[in-house]
Amino acid sequence: MGILVDGRRGSVQVDDETYVITPSGAQASQAVGTLKGSSLANEVLSFAATRAPTRHATPWTAGQDTFAEAMTNTVRVPITVWILTAPGTFLAQSQQALSTVIQAGALFDQERLGLDFNLIEVRDETNNPNRGNFLNVTALDPLETQIGHVSGRINVYWVQAVIGGSGNGTGEVANGDTVAVGFNAAPGLLAHEIGHNLALDHVDGDRRFDGTNVMHSIGGTRQFLTEGQAYRAHIRSISAIRSTQVYNLRPGMPIIDTCSISSTTRTCPKADKRIWADGMTWPAN
Predict the structure, then answer these.
(1) Could you give the CA distance from residue 47 to residue 50 in angstroms, rounded to a whole number?
(2) How far apart (Å, rounded) are the C-alpha atoms in residues 76 and 260?
(3) Do the Cβ atoms of 230 and 216 come closer than 8 Å?
(4) Kind and range of the H or E element at 254?
(5) Rounded to whole angstroms, how far apart are CA atoms 237 and 244?
(6) N or C, fewer C-beta in 10 Å, the chain?
């Protein structure tokens, strides 16, 4: 597991001081020296696979402090997949879509975003009389009204093409619970579109990222999320995890809507904060 520490050491402000810890069984401990309260930020953020990013309050004192808190389990959420490919393709396409959803969820968990899908519902819309209106999806609202939509979960429309390509996708951002992907969509592409539902911004043109990041719009090998991105998915009110219009989960976490991709405030780590390296190009920082 990894932790980011905020506080004050003497007259020096400590901002996202990083530690990687090897747990002993279910517990982990780390000495961070003598920290005092800071007027800017006092907290520990923890990250680990199979856990959701967790914020621990830290009322630092002038002496040695020890805090004991549990990390939050992976957030498990329901999802509905609407199959709109050609008539007669439901069995094969539902299996492919289900595999893609599971792999996208595994990517989120591997990258310590702490979200996985349960209660995966697959609906056969291959014979829906309105299916012909969505052979090339360019907007999401008509899908919700003409095909269907289930509130309180993410809705994935598995279609022939999106904006001209069977491997393309599109996803809602603010309070979003809807994405559409072509039937050739890779797990990384589905994770990218659901990332928009989680209030994650594009990283195109940002020198701190490349096409290996899940949120690069033209990435060919999307596989990484930074800890800064993972934290944002859990603290922005417009994320599907926190939105009152979608999952409305994690009431104990703060809402910090100032944490955009470019935010440099002490209330959230930088978007490119990496406790662990992202491949060979992007080291821990």
Answers:
(1) 9
(2) 24
(3) no
(4) none
(5) 8
(6) C
Read off the pTM: 0.95
Q: 148-207, pLDDT tens digit by residue?
A: 999 999 999 999 999 999 999 999 998 999 999 999 999 999 999 999 999 999 999 999
Q: Which structure tokens are listed for 2? A: 């990894």
C-alpha dihedral sign at 70, 278, 191, 254: positive
Assigned token pair, 95 = 């299996």
Concatenating the DSSP letter of every residue in 66-124 gives ----PPEEPEEEEEEEEE-S-TT-HHHHHHHHHHHHHHHHHHHHHTT--EEEEEEEEEE
* Residue in the structure block whose two tokens are 């299916």: 131
| C-alpha to C-alpha distance for 44 and 46, rounded to whole angstroms | 6
Per the structure block, which two tokens stand in for 1? 């597991």
Return the number of other C-beta atoms located less than 10 Å from residue 156's C-beta.
30
Condensed to tens digits (0 to 9), the pLDDT of residues 107-145 reads 999 999 999 998 999 999 999 999 999 999 999 999 999
pLDDT of residue 267: 84
Q: Exposure string (b/e) for 51-76, b if CB count within 10 Å is 16 or more? A: bbbbbeebebeeeeeeeeeebbebbe
In angstroms, the CA 127 to CA 141 distance is 20
Q: Which two tokens stand for residue 184?
A: 């050739």
Which tokens sit at 155?
């809705």
Residue 182 token pair:
């072509």
Q: Say whether 20 sits in a helix, a strand or coil.
A: strand
Query: In what order do the strands lie in the sheet containing 115-124?
Result: 115-124, 75-83, 154-159, 178-182, 169-171
Does the structure show a pLDDT above 80 at 41?
yes
